[in-house]
Amino acid sequence: xxxxxxxxxxxGGKGQRLGGQDKGLVPYQGHPLIHRSVGLASQCSDAIIxxxxxxxxxxxxxxxxxxQDNTPNYGGxxxxxxxxxxxxxxxxxxxxxxxxxxxxxxxVQTLQSTLLDGRRQLDAVVYxxxxxxxxxxxxxxxxxxxxxxxxxEQGQRSIKRWLESLSLLVLDSNDAQGFTxxxxxxxxxxxx
Length: 192
Prior knowledge:
By secondary structure, the chain is of the alpha/beta class. Helices cover 29% and strands 23% of the residues. The strands form 2 sheets. A 7-stranded mixed β-sheet has the order 5-4-1-6-8-7-9, sandwiched between helices. A two-stranded antiparallel sheet has the order 2-3.
């Protein structure tokens, strides 16, 4: 556990690719999908905050703090992060999308140690894998979460664009498995 970090787990989406099911609660290898993210977060941080817009009482079985964002019709992950930011009491935040069950502690801890390395003044660290920023796993200085407000005020809802507006370090990863999304019926079936 890293007591300098709190974790925000993003589980507040519409579940469009799953016919509207609440993705974090869909069974994955015998447990709700959120179970994997909570297990990882508990190894890498001191507190867990779940961003969820439905089934709040069910998510409370996995974390003491469950936060809904303030937008109708699921505004997207930046709104979820913004809603959770005031609940973070540590100097650093780990952000995990609930649909990445193959993330490993090694992937997370590499980002954490890079952000904590005092040689650079960074706001955030993220991986690039397969040519794409992997925005479902981010470590960030908690103070930098405040910059989401101006992004949303300008109508900007992209996590990627928000991260690129910060002092961001991108690490390359060749771990395609770790960043495999589980967000369609066939991906859940294949994992069973």
